[in-house]
Write a structure and sequence with these properties.
451 residues, alpha/beta, 16 helices
């Protein structure tokens, strides 16, 4: 057994990760692992990290009050503790151990791409979850900590494990697939997100291709037929390949795409001789391609086309991703503030332009990790925004090039508070307001102030 009744004893966990137990080794962990003591629940394992600013071990007692029964850390705590030299490596080892015990009953899907990972993961989780018990990444917890935390939520009832996998360096995805080799690998696109970290688009393609190279023997690669860099990853696949996209040769093809007055897409998905009509409750034409990717992965997992399409029609996205809200003043808010890169920002602006309204107002902040291309990309985004919005609010000094690119439609403001002040003064009934920036800009605060 794994987490869930009867759980794993601390002695078992210590053996699995090469640690020692300080305290009662018979204590059993029956709930998921957490990094935040405030998220602990009865039976959970609190993983403590000693950082430069905060030492998680100091919060063990707080985690215990919330229900945690044990700690995984680098020194003893008031709770029974598995003591290891490297808490991150131990967390990963534990996750690999737990999933290995369940592997015969699990279909594991890895999802990556420069943008659209979280939306596609959400759609795929909805499709698979309608068929059998499914565990999927919460939000965008897709890194070296988030992936093992998701893996540790799997239990004996789980049949599908959907892992969003992110990368900022070549080798990151290889490390994640080293924890669990996916049965299905979904690669959405190769864009310029994290260009400053990778150095080139070719390096980004190399990094994303690691997911295909890391497939389990006989596993299926699900690739974007519209992106040449992704299509080229077919060469890395030792097993079956399914493609998705709008291209004629796509195995799951998007046809007859149309948007309603709120920018929500309807389209036909064709797979072989079969086709289904899908109407998504989500905003943005780009969601159709994400849906096609999710359906292709679902087909690889054995879900019928009709069942996959039906599940899509009630799917929802993670927080702060293309959230459509009515404001008290009669305006409409499109909150896509969780994160941004040039491609996702353009997709959001396209969605803004598709929504019927009196005026379209784009509130845009900095896009991080673009390296030497940062100013060029921000100016280009400003020009793109000016062609799709009546007003472009460029928030903060780092967003200055957005304002420069937007020209006479730009309203530069020094920060979030000033953006809120302008919006409260100028937004009127019938307006549509998009909020979009990288996470560090915290434009979710602007969206929250409007709501």
């Amino acid at each position: 057994m794994t987490f869930g009744e009867p759980g794993l004893s601390l002695g078992h966990i210590a053996t699995a990760v090469g640690g020692t137990v300080a305290g009662d080794s018979t204590v059993r962990v029956t709930a998921p692992a957490v990094l935040d003591s405030r998220q602990a629940e009865p039976g959970s394992l609190f993983v403590a990290f000693a950082g430069d600013q905060v030492d998680g071990h100091d919060f063990a007692a707080q985690a215990g009050k919330a229900g945690a029964v044990a700690v995984l850390g680098s020194r003893p705590t008031p709770l029974p503790t598995v003591v290891v030299e490297d808490a991150q490596a131990a967390l990963q080892s534990l996750a690999a151990h737990v999933v290995a015990r369940l592997r015969d009953q699990l279909t594991v899907v890895g999802v990556t791409g420069s943008q659209g990972k979280t939306g596609t993961k959400d759609l795929l989780a909805a499709v698979l979850g309608g068929t059998a018990p499914t565990v999927a990444t919460a939000g965008s917890l897709n890194n070296e900590l988030g992936v093992p935390l998701t893996m540790l939520r799997a239990d004996p009832a789980t049949r599908f494990l959907v892992l969003e996998m992110g990368a900022r360096h070549v080798g990151d995805l290889a490390a994640l697939t080293g924890l669990v080799a996916p049965d299905i690998a979904v690669v959405l696109n190769v864009g310029v997100a994290h260009l400053g970290e990778f150095g080139s688009r070719g390096a980004i393609a190399e990094a994303k291709g690691e997911l295909v190279r890391g497939l389990r023997a006989g596993g299926t690669a699900v690739l974007n037929a519209d992106d040449p860099r992704v299509s080229a990853m077919r060469a890395f696949a030792a097993g079956p390949v399914l493609t998705f996209g709008r291209s004629e040769h796509a195995d799951v093809r998007v046809l007859y795409l149309a948007l309603d007055r709120l920018g929500r897409p309807s389209f036909t998905l064709r797979s072989g001789a079969a086709s289904v009509v899908v109407t998504l409750p989500l905003v943005g034409a780009h969601q159709a391609l994400n849906a096609a990717a999710a359906v292709a992965a679902a087909l690889a997992a054995g879900v019928p086309l009709a069942a996959a399409a039906a599940a899509l029609e009630t799917a929802s996205l993670s927080k702060w991703r293309m959230e459509l809200r009515d404001l008290e003043c009669g305006a409409t808010l499109l909150n896509d503030s969780y994160n941004a890169n040039p491609d996702s920002a353009r997709a959001a602006l396209d969605a803004l332009a598709a929504i019927q309204g009196a005026r379209r107002i784009a509130v845009l902040g900095e896009m991080r990790e673009l390296g030497a291309a940062s100013e060029v990309e921000h100016r280009a985004l400003g020009r793109y925004a000016a062609a799709r919005a009546d007003v472009v609010i460029a928030v903060g000094e780092a967003a200055g090039p957005i304002g420069a690119g937007a020209g006479e439609r730009a309203v530069p403001v020094p920060g979030n508070d000033a953006a809120v002040d302008w919006l409260r003064t100028h937004v009127a009934a019938g307006d549509v307001v998009l909020v979009k920036a990288s996470r560090a800009a915290r434009l979710d605060e602007v969206a929250a102030a409007l709501v």
